[in-house]
Amino acid sequence: MGHVNERDLKSMANGSVHGLKFNNNEKLSDCEICASEKQVRAAFPKTDEVRVSNLLEIVHSDVCGPMRHASNGGAKYFVTFIDEKSTWCEIFFIKTKSEVLNVFKEYKAKVETFTGEKIRALQTDNGREYCNEQFDTFLSEFGIKRRLTAPYTPQQNGMAERKNRTLVEMARCMMKYADAPPSFWAEAVNTACYIRNRYVTRTTGEVPYRAWTKRNPTVAYMKIFGSKAYVLNKNPSKGKFESRAEPCIFVGYSDESKAYRLYSNNKKRVIISRDVKFIYKSGFEGIFEDFANVNDKYRENEIDVVFENRKTSRTVSSSNEESLDVPAGEASAGNSRRGRGRPSYARTGQRGRPRKVYQQRVEAADSEEDADESEYFHECSEDMSANLATEDPQTLAEALKSEDSSMWLKALEDEFLAHVRNRTWQIVEKPSNRKTIGNKFVFRTKDANLKKVRLVAKGYAQRPGKIFTRFHLQ
């Protein structure tokens, strides 16, 4: 019978088949073949059999990462610590897994001081960031019991695993809505943790903030992640006619004061302030466009472009402004995000040049200035034609005939709107003694199957001795 199971044998013996001689009251002996070849994992209970009764009785922890893009502060991972009793979560951002012990020490000192309780047990998986001699020594020194999951059984650390998944999902949604660059993932995850601590938890039916602090939270001051905001300029030496506020982007809530975290693109750093006016539209729009790297010297030069005058259906509604309403009754015992200190907000993750590049031929320039210009356009053509070594479309017709035509059309629209926002072209009359320079679309598939399209000028077609800083596109 092909090692059919006992339940099905008894079912067939009830008359569904003929010729089977089997007594339903008979108990089959154990089959070693079935035990060997049909073994499956034991079922996991949906909830723990015994719930804890005190804060910090059991702390769950897990590391998430590495992320594909480093954060603005250089972090590649985040680690969460969740108190099982209250489900209150603290989060830290780290560059390497070797920093887990250091952030656990910081977490332990913080929460034990706040609650007056002691951590009794730490539940983690078997990762080396937790299971090492230094970590064992520290736990033994403070009498903290270690609770490990069985090998290859992440379900036993379900509270931490599910928390990380929830935070990543929330952060991904916020970044998508705000059109935030990937390097802002840490700010989004940190904000997600802050918000999640003020949600009702399904397993306990209580808000973690209330269970942790014994006070009801307020959410009236919460804003939309990525919103454009204007921060009051408090510089005492500013002139009478200087701007009163600086444009910034809302990226979260301060864990050290009753204020907001706002990213200044001018200063490339985060500002903590409570004197803010919010405008509910994306603050990232038009700031971090993924164009080809262009030298500032040439970006500042005037460029006249003959461009097809198309109308866009995109409209922008008038913005709604709102003044800051700082919470009065909520303590700033929010989740920690310091990790390894305040991040420096330098742009990271610039794309490197592909290994195989189709090089366009550029005629040598006579003068040193022409040589600089020629080298610049040579590099641009090299970078923008790099996709010839890939399977991406080479022409608009190929893109529209491909299986991903709808995605390429969306990328084309995004590229056009980006040019409109940044005012990269101007319609002019073509001088009678000038020839127009051709242009083309460059198609590229990036990470996570993201489609990007760039409209580029065929700068390599220019001749030495002619004006490089003013040219016309057909």
UniProtKB/TrEMBL annotation:
Q: Per the database record, which ranges form the Integrase catalytic domain?
A: 41-216
Coiled-coil parts of chain: none
GO MF terms here are: hydrolase activity; metal ion binding; nucleic acid binding
Mention one GO biological process in which this protein takes part, according to its record: DNA integration
Where do Acidic residues bias regions lie?
365-374
InterPro entries attached here? Answer: Integrase_cat-core, Retrotran_Ty1/copia-like, RNaseH-like_sf, RNaseH_sf, RVT_2, SH3_retrovirus
- State the protein's name: (Mediterranean fruit fly) hypothetical protein
Species for this entry: Ceratitis capitata (Mediterranean fruit fly)
Species lineage, top-down? Eukaryota, Metazoa, Ecdysozoa, Arthropoda, Hexapoda
